[in-house]
Amino acid sequence: MNFTKQPSCADDQDIGVLRVEQALAQMYAALRPLTETEYVPLRQALGRVLAQVIVCPINVPSHTNAAMDGYALRGADLPAEGSVTLRQIGVAWAGRPFADTVPAGQCVRIMTGACLPDGTDTVVMQENVRVDGDWIQISAQERPGQNVRHAGEDLACGEPVLSAGRLILPPELGLLASLGIVEVKVIRRLRVAFFSTGDELRSLGEFLQEGQIYDSNRYTIYGMLMRAGVEVIDMGVVRDDRAILTDAVQQAASHADVLITSGGVSVGEADFTKAVLSELGNIAFWKIAMKPGRPLAFGQVKNMAFLGLPGNPVAVMVTFYQFVLPLLRYLQGEINPLITPTIQAKSLFTFKKKPGRSEFPRGFLSQDETGQWCVEISHQQGSGILRSMSEGNCFILLPETQGTVAAGDWVTVQPFSGLL
Ligand SMILES: Nc1nc2c(c(=O)[nH]1)N[C@H]1C(S)=C(S)[C@@H](COP(=O)(O)OP(=O)(O)OC[C@H]3O[C@@H](n4cnc5c(N)ncnc54)[C@H](O)[C@@H]3O)O[C@H]1N2
Ligand code: MOO
């Protein structure tokens, strides 16, 4: 009998296991971003990656205008001390300019956003004046040139404003709209196929026999891919059968840029995924010094990238956010790095850990009565306990070098939520 020790997730040190950063670097080095492009109407560009430089075709704002409701006048008419009284000769509305030139000693009632009339260069807020019929009294506190927004101060005609590779988010949609741009050139959407493996899995609507479970990973993965803005190809559940699996991978390779699978990457008898992938293409690595998510396989079949996520439901989510999401964004041609803000928080828990691998326990981040960020760990940390993701609101990032965490220690947390 052979009692040779098999590599196991329980090991803290394991030769041949890649550190998280090394694994990410290998993925980036092996793959090239998409270059194919298409034109889409502006609203459909949300979440897409720009494939052209945007040069401003107009000034924004297009005309010099008032930043406040009040009175437009010549700065030279403002008093050095005491006050001055100017005669109001008309009104400038937003979208309905005052047509004449304003002479010295006179002023025009102006609304926010209205063009500054010829002759004027300053706006005094209406709260700061005294009105007596057509006579407007202004005191010495005002400054020439104030409360004016200059033509092109936001975006100047001819200026490059967005570079190729920018992810289009709500601010960019608004910015492009402010330039009157109706259609933009974007990188085509990444096509991501996914399937679950495992004979114990049943799809929704099917009856569970003993030992069977519903395929939840395909739903979690669907959700995460939809939020990532890619085109999804759901290939269902693939049985633990070498021929069926081979066929599914070949099908994916003829349609998709990326294939994501869950399950079948560990060392069990029915874990065929690695073997099939090695036969059809190559597996660059399949072990990472992290928990959960240690058996994560990465490779390529023809031009398709392959990510074999572990079957455990939490391991699927951890590996997706730590590896798959940054990789998808890179493949979509996004040049800005994925910034996932982290917060330093006081630990309200103790957690046993040996240095040697990165761990991603789930936690609940909150502020105490003094405003201090604190984090409590979810009680059940098993990588099959999906509730820890649903009830938690952050990952607690424990790097490779980190040992046991004591209550009161500072830890880095990565909130699940983002703004844009
Ligand atoms: N001897 C060892 N056994 C295991 C090791 C190890 O190092 N040595 N690693 C463990 C770790 S860590 C993980 S993670 C799993 C990964 O294994 P697989 O990727 O081969 O996944 P499966 O064995 O197919 O499933 C694991 C677990 O997850 C459930 N599962 C699978 N797919 C789904 C799905 N689509 N929806 C919901 N749940 C799913 C499955 O029923 C199992 O309970 O291996 C450990 N074993
Ligand atoms: O590390 Mo496994 O990936 O516990 O779930």
TrEMBL record:
Pathway: Cofactor biosynthesis; molybdopterin biosynthesis. Keywords: Magnesium, Metal-binding, Molybdenum, Molybdenum cofactor biosynthesis, Transferase. The keyword Magnesium applies. It catalyses: adenylyl-molybdopterin + molybdate = Mo-molybdopterin + AMP + H(+). Its cofactor is Mg(2+). The keyword Magnesium applies. This is Molybdopterin molybdenumtransferase. The lineage of its organism: Bacteria, Pseudomonadati, Pseudomonadota, Gammaproteobacteria, Thiotrichales.
